[in-house]
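User: I'm designing a mutation panel for Phosphoribosylaminoimidazole-succinocarboxamide synthase and want to avoid disrupting the core. Could you give me a predicted structure to guide residue selection? Please restate the sequence first so the numbering is unambiguous.

Assistant: Good idea. Sequence first, for numbering, then the predicted structure tokens:
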Amino acid sequence: MEKLEMLYEGKAKRVYKTQDADLYVVEYKDDATAFNGEKKGTIADKGVVNNKMSALLFQMLEAEGIPTHFESLVNDREQIVKAVKILPLEVIVRNVAAGSLAKRLGLEEGTPMAKTVLEFCYKDDALGDPMINDYHIAAIELATEDQVAAIKSMAFKINDILCAYFLERGLKLIDFKLEFGVFKGDVILADEISPDTCRLWDAETNKKMDKDRFRRDLGDVEATYQEVLGRLQK
């Protein structure tokens, strides 16, 4: 698959056209950002970890009946994906109070919640990705009602699958972000699943095993990313 001109460069990835209009090449970068781009840095080989981990998890989810954009790995940093049109929504699934939710609701971080929480944010860097609800989505036509229903159904199913999968590998899935796109009329899972997009805590010690180590200057960032990938590859 030949990589042609770059279509888009984001905080963590570059997307390239290919000779096939239905396929893109995604290249994962080592750049790291936090707090809507206010904090910037580099995590050595983060792109390798996120590329391999996303590929592994997308394939696992496909086997469980979740349609994804993933097609195949190219190399350590690149994968081929379907040419989806990304819906401008960040979908956040929360199992335990942490991060902004804990602060917003005055909960101690680590507080289990009686019910899984699903949140939507409007994917717009200039606005700071504000939180929105179903009514906002319909009012400004970010997605149809059927698309939102499909996203909700898949998000909860993905959560169930990933919680069990990570726990078998000694990790608790605290919360995570998903993105979805439309490909040939169908809503499918896109973007990535990685320590950048998931809060993962060690199941025994509650050590943070994700990008919070970068956000909060906890140290041991690169080694932790590598450890997460290593646990999934066993």
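For picking mutation sites, this is relevant: The first helix runs from residue 46 to 63. The chain has a mean pLDDT of 97.
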